[in-house]
């Protein structure tokens, strides 16, 4: 009888304890991996170890503790890993990474699962990691959708796109995510998928505001169609690259984020449209809407490039200049085609 050999599991550090991190852990555990799962809440860590569920997010997902080690030791979790996945909200990731020394990420493949940018620095996550930790571009990857954590938890058919300059590394990571209900493909346009993941959250805010104001499906469709053109104009100027924006990582991710009941950015926007203040909407949601931070960053970046971006401009005015949503959308509807 022939002897079969099982390869050693790929060692992965998952940084973050939210819903998307939980969903990715679930996907990875379908394959031959071992996950060192860092999160800031020691209470949640203790709960997972005892009950095998994340008490704060996607509590219906059972955590396979034979493949997962929940931990509060950030540097140790990274030291033992070949691949480091960042899944902390963009507004907080810089503070988490401050705990690391430059050499902590040496020879690691770093994957951004963050759909946002570093505030103040106005930087993509992968660009920030490259600059702060000297991680070469060939060791950086980004996860794009269209994929909601809630549907992963329900094991509904889902699709991911892995962006990376090194297509082999991207494919290797994609293979670790594939499973019964997950398909994963790769593209070399890492900057494009990152920017698109950021901007689709801004558009989801706009769609939510429109919904809160009482606009219907007809307007929503026109808004999304114009948004795709706005994204194309911006990407063509800031990151020229041969890309098909009709692909799943671009148009698909935009559609699911602007239409889905699970979209926290759409939900946040809808609350603003119904009259909530930004602060009251944030308090009631108890979850981060990345688009709130993203719209300010994109707006500030565009001061240099001066791309025509009426949707981004309208959302920025509403959220940061306290413009009336009714007035902004009255202006916006006249420039959409």
From TrEMBL:
The active site is at 200 (proton acceptor). NAD(+) binds at residues 92, 149, 264. It catalyses: sn-glycerol 3-phosphate + NADP(+) = dihydroxyacetone phosphate + NADPH + H(+). GO terms for cellular component: cytosol. Substrate binds at residues 115, 264-265. It comes from the Bacteria. Transmembrane segments: none annotated. SUPFAM superfamilies: 6-phosphogluconate dehydrogenase C-terminal domain-like, NAD(P)-binding Rossmann-fold domains. GO terms for biological process: carbohydrate metabolic process; glycerol-3-phosphate catabolic process; phospholipid biosynthetic process. Its EC number is 1.1.1.94. Residues 11-167 form the Glycerol-3-phosphate dehydrogenase NAD-dependent N-terminal domain. GO terms for molecular function: glycerol-3-phosphate dehydrogenase (NADP+) activity; NAD binding. Pfam families: NAD_Gly3P_dh_C, NAD_Gly3P_dh_N. Belongs to the NAD-dependent glycerol-3-phosphate dehydrogenase family. This is Glycerol-3-phosphate dehydrogenase. The lineage of its organism: Bacteria, Pseudomonadati, Bacteroidota, Cytophagia, Cytophagales.
């Amino acid at each position: 009888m022939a002897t079969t050999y099982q390869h050693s599991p790929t060692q992965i550090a998952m940084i973050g304890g939210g819903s998307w991190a939980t969903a990715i852990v679930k996907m990875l555990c379908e394959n031959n991996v071992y996950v060192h799962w860092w999160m800031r809440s020691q209470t949640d860590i203790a709960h997972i170890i005892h009950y095998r569920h994340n008490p704060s997010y996607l509590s219906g997902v059972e955590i396979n503790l034979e493949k997962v080690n929940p931990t509060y030791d950030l540097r140790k979790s990274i030291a033992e890993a070949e691949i480091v996945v960042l899944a902390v909200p963009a507004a907080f990731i810089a503070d988490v990474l401050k705990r690391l020394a430059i050499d902590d990420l040496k020879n690691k493949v770093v994957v951004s699962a963050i759909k946002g940018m570093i505030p103040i620095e106005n930087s993509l996550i992968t660009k920030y990691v490259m600059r702060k930790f000297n991680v070469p571009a060939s060791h950086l990857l980004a996860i794009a959708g269209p994929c909601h954590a809630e549907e992963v938890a329900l094991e509904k058919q889902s699709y991911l796109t892995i962006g990376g300059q090194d297509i082999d590394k991207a494919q290797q990571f994609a293979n670790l995510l594939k499973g019964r209900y997950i398909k994963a493909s790769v593209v070399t346009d890492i900057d494009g998928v990152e920017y698109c993941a950021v901007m689709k959250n801004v558009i989801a805010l706009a769609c939510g505001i429109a919904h809160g104001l009482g606009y219907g499906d007809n307007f929503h469709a026109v808004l999304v169609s114009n948004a795709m053109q706005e994204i194309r104009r911006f990407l063509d100027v800031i990151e020229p690259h041969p890309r098909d924006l009709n692909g799943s990582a671009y148009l698909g991710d935009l559609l699911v984020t602007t239409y889905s009941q699970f979209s926290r950015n759409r939900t946040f926007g809808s609350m603003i449209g119904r009259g909530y203040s930004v602060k009251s909407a944030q308090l009631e949601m108890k979850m981060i809407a990345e688009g709130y931070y993203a719209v300010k960053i994109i707006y500030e970046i565009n001061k240099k490039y001066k791309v025509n971006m009426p949707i981004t401009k309208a959302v920025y005015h509403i959220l940061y200049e306290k413009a009336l949503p009714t007035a902004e959308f009255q202006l916006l509807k006249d420039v959409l085609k």
